[in-house]
Amino acid sequence: MMKRRHKQGACQILCLLAALLAVSVCTPIRVKARELSEGKSIVFLLDASGSMKSNDPQRLAIDSIAQLIYSLPSDYQMGFVAYNSEITANLDFVLSDQRNQIMEEAETIEYIGYSDAGTGLEYAVGMLADQQADEKHVVMLSDGEILMKDDASTESSKQQYQQAVQQAADVGIRIHVIGLGDEMEDMNNFIFSAAEATNGKSFYTPQAMGIQEAIDSVLTEELGIKQSTIAIIDADGGTETVSAELPYTHADKVRVLLTSSAPITNLTANFQADSAKQMNGSRYSLIEMSRPAESKLELSFEGTAGNQVRINVIPEYYVSLKGEVAYTDELPAEAEGKQYYDRTAEIKYSFYDVENQDVQLWTQDFFNHTKIKLTENGQEKELTLNNGVMETVCPVTENMTLETVPDYSDMPVNVIGDGALVMELEGPPVLPAEEPPYGLIAGLAVVGLAAAAIIIAVIIKSRKPKPVPLPPEDRPEPSRYSYTGKLNLYITRTQSGYDIPPLSFNLFRLPSGRVISMKEILESCGVKEVFAGADMIYFKSGANRNLILTNNSDCTIMKNREILMKKKSYQLPLEAKVDITFEDEISELMFQYKD
């Protein structure tokens, strides 16, 4: 409580009384969701020239395409281009559920002919230049320099290559180059210049088996894809089994990708999800789960003896950010010349599934203590996630718009949609005007009258003692409807600190005209703990199987984040949940009205 100096003692008393009225008000806020991002686009550019026959005899590059596209979150659009002496294959951008079309196209590629990388890169950059996307990438796999049938054609292709690189740099396309084979050992190779000029990354792998590792680096280091390895199995040719606990309940999708340098066969999986699909290649298998319902995952498969099988998990969430605001108003420390209370907005941020706004995300222990950066009206903050909620405070001096933009880059999962929101915050209320101490005068008069009344009462009592009747109970009128259902009670906190197991009270056994208090219900359940105010919370039966709750106490009672006001009655339908904080501000109880 803030103290204030005054010239008159009466005014000081009034101001102290006003300070006692400092309020914490829970106010619904108007939230406007920002538009989701435009997504991201990526093209895989494959050198399909004849030299690839010797550098990639097992066609591991084809499986690496699958490794890339199936690891990308759903907000990526994927395109594919292959070239030798000309463009031999191209597939325009496909959505997440159509990526198998890229693999169908890639499987038809033959390694033959010359290497016209200029035409290939020009085509890939042209595809991306027309895309409206937040990020644009080319992942290029090549095993050597540009080489055509004559010097003139070779020089023309090199010029095309340089022009495509310049165009990519101008429009913000990053090119990542994977060099395969002996010719690409020199990192000054002309093909690698595309990565350097566009702020991309260059990778060199002497043999085709290393392409997989290069793709992993592109995914995690350059694209920022969040994935975790749950197992690396040394296959012996027999059946392998893997069990894992995945903390990604309510994720929009969870992809489980198995990769190896040799075939993987007879893959089966046991899990619970809304839906799932499986895709298999020569050296990879993918299981894609939509909205997994539990964390248990069991896999069974056969690997090729002497080879390793790596199992990666790629989770993704569609997130909607929500905010809840409570205001605390206090008298200013120096009130001279001030017209308004000091107001602080206490903001709680939480995260919900975009498609099902009733599902709160990231409440599991796995996500506790995760740091999430926020930008509030241009000011950066870093908050900590606990039980799915982040809390912060914001001083409010006037009506204001608070725009909050989250940064999920430190989250251990892939988040789609920026989840940004706009909140309207209310300015502080006006301080009461200073007036003569009418309240103090009235208070003294009341005290005097009360003292006189006490003296008169004592005199009358001493002359003729009479029993004083008890005040009537402030109970609501009985009802003519019959009770139904029961109350399931969960006492979550007591003043003594003792734990009380869940309780159940059958309402349907009560007569229709009975009005019963919460105190009577608890006593009938054998509860010895004292709950201040429970004797002033009443229940009676209502129409249509409803239960009528009347609050005559000073307890804080909430139903679906709505405060149930004192001296008012509320209808509770079946399945209604109500939270009560009793008058001692320690004891807490939650009950549910069940059929």
Going by helix content, strand content and strand pairing, the class is: alpha+beta
Overall body shape: elongated
Query: Count the helices. How many?
Result: 10
What is the number of strand segments?
33
Q: Count up the domains.
A: 4
* Parts with pLDDT < 50 across at least 5 consecutive residues: 1-37, 464-472
- The CA-CA distance between the termini, in Å, is 47 Å
Mean pLDDT equals: 86
Strand proportion, as a percent range, falls in 35-45%
Describe this structure in words.
This protein is of the alpha+beta class and 595 residues long. Strands 1, 9, 11, 13, 14, 16, 17, 20 and 22 form a nine-stranded mixed sheet that branches. A six-stranded mixed sheet has the order 5-4-3-6-7-8, with helices on both faces. A six-stranded antiparallel sheet has the order 25-24-33-32-29-30, with no helix packed on it. A hairpin with a 2-residue loop joins strand 29 (556-559) and strand 30 (562-563). Helix 3 packs parallel to helix 8 (211-222) and helix 5 (117-129) packs parallel to helix 6. The longest helix is centred in the last third of the chain and has 26 residues, at 438-463.
Topology summary:
Blueprint: H1 9-19, E1 24-27, E2 31-33, E3 40-47, H2 52-55, H3 60-69, E4 76-83, E5 87-94, H4 100-106, H5 117-129, E6 135-142, H6 151-171, E7 173-180, H7 193-197, E8 202-205, H8 211-222, E9 228-234, E10 239-245, E11 253-260, E12 264-270, E13 273-280, E14 284-292, E15 296-303, E16 308-330, E17 342-353, E18 370-376, E19 379-385, E20 389-396, E21 400-407, E22 414-416, E23 421-425, H9 438-463, E24 486-493, E25 503-506, E26 516-517, H10 518-524, E27 537-541, E28 547-551, E29 556-559, E30 562-563, E31 568-572, E32 577-581, E33 588-594
Parallel strand pairs: 3-4, 3-6, 6-7, 7-8, 16-22
Antiparallel strand pairs: 1-16, 2-23, 4-5, 9-16, 10-15, 11-14, 11-16, 12-15, 13-14, 16-17, 17-20, 18-19, 18-21, 21-23, 24-25, 24-33, 26-27, 27-28, 28-31, 29-30, 29-32, 32-33
Helix pairs in contact: 3-8, 5-6
